[in-house]
Amino acid sequence: MYKVFFNRKFIELTNEIVDHNDNTPFFYIKFSNAKLIVTALKSKKVKGVYLYHPNNKKLWKHFLKRFPLVVAAGGVVQHANSKILFIYRNNLWDMPKGRVEKNELITDGAIREVMEETGVRDLILKKSLAITYHIFSRSGKYKLKKTHWYFMYTSYEGPLNPQFEEGILQAVWKTTDQVPKLMKNSYENIKILFKDLAL
């Protein structure tokens, strides 16, 4: 089923009774709410939670009632010199991404967000990557962000301009040799992307 992340912890949606303990509580989603789930995830001893319903469609329906869906898109950008574009936000290394606007193509949204968050231009979409899911807070409400990721290429030689109003402190090019170290201080969703890429 789906695996969703909350910061660096997991939420696994399942229609099977799985082994669980105090570090990985198990909730029947029909009788759980967003506050209960988030409170459990904020506990220092909890590594992740399982959300259960025997029917996959109902499981997803209940989950979206508790965490409304926001569609986003972003990119892993490789320069002609083989370096990879990273942003630094919330004390973690991340990839540029953001919400897709109404009536906007997802691919167009991915390119626009990379440009807005980093200043990089001349982007070419090479291929689709994974779709990832994570919970985030906006105006005190928790939502589910579904992010469509793309591998992009550029030969852009201009300056990088991190979007400070979005909390981005740095936009930088990093060598592929530096990526494993950066992954130690990154989100689980981002680690998934680099597992898919043979850089």
Instruction: Kindly report the spatial arrangement of strands forming the biggest sheet.
Output: 3-4-2-1-9-10-5-8
Query: What proportion of the residues form beta strands (DSSP E)?
Result: 35-45%
Please identify the structural class as seen in this structure.
alpha/beta
Mean pLDDT: 94
Our Rg estimate from Cα atoms comes to 18 Å
Q: The biggest beta sheet, please?
A: 8 strands, mixed
Q: What's the count of strands?
A: 11
What order do the SSEs take from the amino end to the carboxyl end, as H and E? EEEHEHEEEEHEEEHH
Please give the count of helices. Answer: 5
State the end-to-end distance: 28 Å
What sort of overall outline do the alpha carbons produce when their principal axes are compared? elongated
Percentage of helical residues? 10-25%
Low-confidence residue ranges = none
Folded structure, characterized:
This protein is of the alpha/beta class. 24% of the residues lie in helices and 39% in strands. 28% of the residues are buried. It has helices spanning 34-42, 56-66, 106-118, 179-183, 188-196; strands at 3-6, 9-14, 26-28, 48-52, 69-79, 84-89, 92-94, 97-99, 124-138, 141-154, 168-174. The longest helix has 13 residues, at 106-118. A hairpin with a 2-residue loop joins strand 9 and strand 10 (141-154). The chain is built from five helices and eleven strands. The protein has an eight-stranded mixed sheet with strand order 3-4-2-1-9-10-5-8, with helices on both faces. A three-stranded antiparallel sheet has the order 7-6-11.
